[in-house]
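assembly run, all chains below
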Amino acid sequence: MEKVVIIGSGPAGLTSAIYTARAALGPLVVEGVQPGGQLTTTTVIENWPGFEDGIDGNKLMQDMRKQAEKVGARFDSGTIVKIEKKDGHFEIQREYDTPILAQTVIVATGAKALTLPLPNVAKLMGYGVSTCAVCDGFFYKNKVVVVVGGGDSAMEEAMYLSKMASQVTLIHRRDKFRASKSMQERVLANPKIKILYSTELLEMKANDQGLYAIVIQNLAGEKTEMPLDGLFMAIGHQPNTDFVKGLVELDDKGYILTNNGTHTNVPGIFAAGDVEDKLYRQAVTAAGRGCQAALQLEKYIEGHV
Ligand code: NAP
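ok done. output:
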């Protein structure tokens, strides 16, 4: 029986691992299919305090993992499919492995990229459609790409792609971006990025090779077919909570509902980071929640909830 199992290895999961390990609780961290979480698909992080010139997302997560290991956290990997409450403990069921039994659990599974509700999105993923410029941008060297979205992710994707693609068009459904001012300014100042405001993407056109064009529509209702090589969807995220449905209380968008800090409705299960935060969703806020979950879990184990 494990005392503490932390599911997820982004900033929330790894911070709770560092804190619970230092509290001599011997946490086991279960990493999913993307160890390190979403920060491993970004480039330089400029808003993580302490790094004047920013820090590479992958490096930050690798260092955090090493730090957690150094203070005593153990690591395992696998996809968790369900958590069941048993008599006085939890059974954490894995896809291809035996279940892990745990006294307490911190859910820090983050969120994944949303895609536009268009036919064939899943089929075209990797064949002209992507949700990650850092992962797939390489394939679009000197090619024509389009980014959809108006948040920080869309700005970041467009900036990244502008370094390799021959042309980047950023399409946003409204006439204002929701991204932070500094990210917007960088995009607006980039001569390689063309912006189409108040434009919707209606259709994707594909052949045997994959995506070759999209159909867009402006405010006046005019439709245009736009040839392209790659389409990057950056329209927000969805929390990874399928495996706790029916046990832990979720809101209408699937985020875990927390109360009094990081407690869930199930005593002994805590949640931290993007899996329960639809408002801030920053690396630094996720790390803060990971710390809070660890401290609250420690109190819970000691019997002071
Ligand atoms: P977001 O802020 O929720 O923005 C999503 C964007 O996609 C919005 O502009 C939204 O349009 C658009 N959108 C949503 N559904 C759409 C649809 N069906 N069709 C067309 N457009 C659609 O998501 P995000 O950009 O992924 O950012 C998530 C969080 O991570 C934010 O808190 C952000 O600050 C943070 N983040 C930070 C950094 C950084 O600091 N380096 C980088 C990336 C993300 P509307 O504006 O019209 O709603």
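The first strand starts at residue 2 and ends at 7.

The mean pLDDT is 95.

not gonna interpret more than that til we talk
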